[in-house]
Amino acid sequence: MVRELSTLEQVAGLLGWDQRTYMPTGAAPDRALQNSVMAGIIHERLTAPRMGKLITILKKQEIPQDGTVILREIERKWKRASNVPASLVKEISKTGALGMEAWAKARKNSDFTQLEPLLDRMIGLKARSAEYIGYEDKPYDALLDEYEPGLKTGDMETLFKRLTGKLAPITRKIFDEPVPKSAIPADIYLLEDQRTFLSALAAGMGFDLNYGRIDLSAHPSTIGCCRDVRITFRYQESSPIFAIFPIIHEAGHALYEQGFQEKHFGTPLAEAVSMSFHESQSRLWENMVGRSLPFWTYYYPQMQQVFPKFKKVPLGAWYREINRVTPSFIRTEADELTYNLHIALRFEAEAAIFSGKLKTEEIPQFWNERFERYLGLEVPDDARGCLQDIHWSGGEFGYFPSYTLGNLYAAQLWDAARRQTPEIKGRIAMGDLTVLRDWLRTNVHRHGKRYGAAELMKRITGSEISEDYFIRYIREKYSWVYDISLGAAPKIKIDR
Of 11, 219, 262, 317, whose CB has the highest number of CB atoms within 10 Å? Predict the structure, then answer.
């Protein structure tokens, strides 16, 4: 039953991938119906009386350790699903499919009103879902728990306050520095050339194209698992940066999905610990590795061959370009320091929406006011404001905080990888990315959901989850990039 459910979920995922890539826009109503039917079938199988009986019977028996993990995770999933009516599950899925098409059009036209009716319906549906699922404190807690089990609104409020307080003086000092001149040569960077280089990057990381694909879509994403993992990206002809780092990011997700043990395929032991841990994999590859000097020591000459205009740009100038710290409108293009401010805004918007303090029609104004407060920029249009992300149109409320948690987890894992594998930077500089991939396979991927996020992090790194690893990483890196003093790195206790 467990593997059958997993198979159905994979089929539903492929419907989503097709909608983002090749599906004709006119097919949206049919896809909405297809998604609704699939969601209903999955919900029916998961909440069937037989599933509940099997869980009850198995809890009374002694079963192998692997079975205990699978039972624990299926019971958690079963309990959440059993509280929500099938009709609501199907309506959310149907609205999400229609919403994603409406989002694509609204974003293209930079017109929030084109998405507003479906988004308002989705918000209402997710609010009802939260009430059915239940929560101890705030309705938004029920949505956060879907992506990071046990996470509460208050936890994120405290974390953002602490994190932004530590980042603010670092960011202000860097903002005071002269802005580096752009190192992107004016040119037309053809899609075919970009595909060639992007495929080389993903393959170098270890993304197996025998079991995966790379396609275009309106928003970067990774869909699928195990033997069928699909990456999507978007691009601009004016600059290859627009696609390079999203591809590295999505390949990080894909490596996690391809890194599970085959004997566990179709079970929770071949699923990510949490969405935040999933994001830690993509953010680690994108930032700690993909924006590092060792990485580009190897890949920059290859990039210069594909894009000859860059032969006139020294490696150092390119390195400063990809680590430029400056306020920007688009989250996926943001630097490592300001990125978390983008997430803080989204978290605050979601928390306000599900506490009843923010109406759907008020989202653009809320967004623009907070954005100017946090990043000092006046949002010019909806496309570069509240319409830039696909998540809300598909009903993924509670997802965004996993990006910031993923940043923190990534820094802590990167610290452990460097301590445990001292040669890692040198190997990366020679183009050997398997050293990190294999370390992640051993320490993260193979465990699936065997451990919770906190326990797994303690096992890997020897310490509790802490934002201080990220702060230390930021201080060390940007002190070097900008040749300034950013203060002493925080001391961290590690259990040996």
Answer: 219
Buried/exposed 334-350: b ≥16 CB within 10 Å, e otherwise: bbbbbbbbbbbbbbbbb
Give, in order, the Cα–Cα distances in Å from 342 to each of 195, 333, 346: 28, 11, 7
Would you place residue 496 in the very low, low, confident or very high pLDDT band (cuts 50, 70, 90)?
A: very low
The Cα angle at residue 243 between residues 25 and 435, in degrees rounded to 5: 125
DSSP helix/strand/coil, 287? helix
Give a three-class secondary structure readout of 38-82: HHHHHHHHHHCHHHHHHHHHHHCCCCCHHHHHHHHHHHHHHHHHH
Rounded Cα distance between 73 and 79, Å, is: 10
- Looking at residue 495, its pLDDT comes to 53
Q: Is 229 exposed, middle or buried (0-12, 13-18, 19+ CB in 10 A)?
A: buried
Structure token pair of residue 393: 């149109």
The token pair that represents 76 in the structure block: 């958690």
For strand 212-216 and strand 221-225, is the pairing parallel, antiparallel, or unpaired?
Answer: unpaired
* pLDDT tens figures, 376-386: 999 999 999 99
Percentages of the chain per state (helix, strand, coil), in multiples of 5: 65, 5, 30
130/353 Cα distance (integer angstroms): 13
Residues acting as catalytic residues = 250
Which pTM was predicted? 0.92
In the block, tokens 């593997």 appear at: 3
Rounded distance between C-alpha atoms, residue 457 and residue 461, angstroms: 6
Question: Mind giving me the DSSP string for 218-246?
Answer: SS-EEEEETTEEEEEE--BTTBTHHHHHH
Residue type for 204, please? G
* pLDDT (tens digit per residue) in 85-100: 999 999 999 999 999 9
Distances (CA, A) of 328 to 27, 324, 405: 35, 11, 21
**Stretch 222-229: mean pLDDT:** 94
Residue 1 banded pLDDT, cuts 50, 70, 90: confident
Place of tokens 């075919």: 192
Report how many helices (DSSP H) and strands (DSSP E) the chain contains, helices first: 20, 3
pLDDT, one tens digit per residue, over 251-281 is: 999 999 999 999 999 999 999 999 999 999 9
Mean pLDDT of all residues in 346-360: 97
Using CA atoms, how far apart are residues 288 and 415, in angstroms rounded to an integer?
10
Q: Report the Cα 401 to chain-centroid distance in Å.
A: 9
